[in-house]
């Protein structure tokens, strides 16, 4: 192990028919994330299914845990490649939840549970590809999105997703004049298509209609086929994203948040163990069951539990030293970002 990695080690524990098991131990500072990246990438490429024992992992720089979802996304993500962490101590588990790693990379208490989680799709699946500043990039982007939609069973939105990706990549390659990263992020609400380029500043003037063909162009076409779209500035460029909802995902999201709002009001107004609070919760679940079915009620419970866990974890970590130090630089340099759009969990 070279001095730059301190005592960080990545070891192959075993490889069998079901998965490859790695153990990461020692201290993980920012500059050593590359060691984990290389080992994980190789194992995912070789086997497609990797379990990582993190019971002996210590974090010198908490945002470095983003290396796990970043590598998974870069290798193509679920279902082609699958990654589960296990054995995290209480502090590491809180960090993984607070930094939303757990939404993309499942975390289990032990190896047996981790093996079962390999068969379950994460709540958020993502993949990304880096594209050159070349005319071949928009066609490559279209093929990439078609493959993702096939893997994720998104037939109903495949056409629109391909259009959005093609236009955003063309915008980056031809107008921004830089290489770019195409990011796809899918959860229960819908699909986010985003392209990050390396040219700061605004977007080019839109060209709404071709007078000869009456065809929409660029961002006008993106706006026409997506629910929402936006631009996020980065240190060295910008991210242009668009959100395409799945079915009645927008109504489902609204129902979840309305249920949460009603429950919180009942608890705050009458106490968590009061008859009024219990009645409010029963009414909420009854309405949801009537409108969306029993499975939606279970999904809502999981969703609310997740938000509660993340909020609690974030509050506990507010005074942790270095939790925010360098976070922006890491996200901009390494991580597939979470976008401020309706698809963000």
Overview of this structure, please?
This protein has 345 residues and is an alpha/beta fold. The chain has 3 domains: 3-117, STAS domain (Transcription Regulator spoIIAA, 2-Layer Sandwich); 125-247, Heat Shock Protein 90, CATH 3.30.565; 250-302. Helices cover 44% and strands 21% of the residues. It has 11 helices and 10 strands. The strands form 2 sheets. Strands 1-2-3-4-5 form a 5-stranded mixed sheet. A 5-stranded antiparallel sheet has the order 6-7-8-10-9. A hairpin with a 2-residue loop joins β9 and β10. The longest helix is centred in the C-terminal third of the chain and has 23 residues, at 294-316. The radius of gyration is 22 Å and the shape is globular. The two termini are 38 Å apart.
Keywords for this entry:
345 residues, alpha/beta, Transcription Regulator spoIIAA, Heat Shock Protein 90, 3 domains, five-stranded mixed β-sheet, 11 helices, globular, disordered N terminus, disordered C terminus
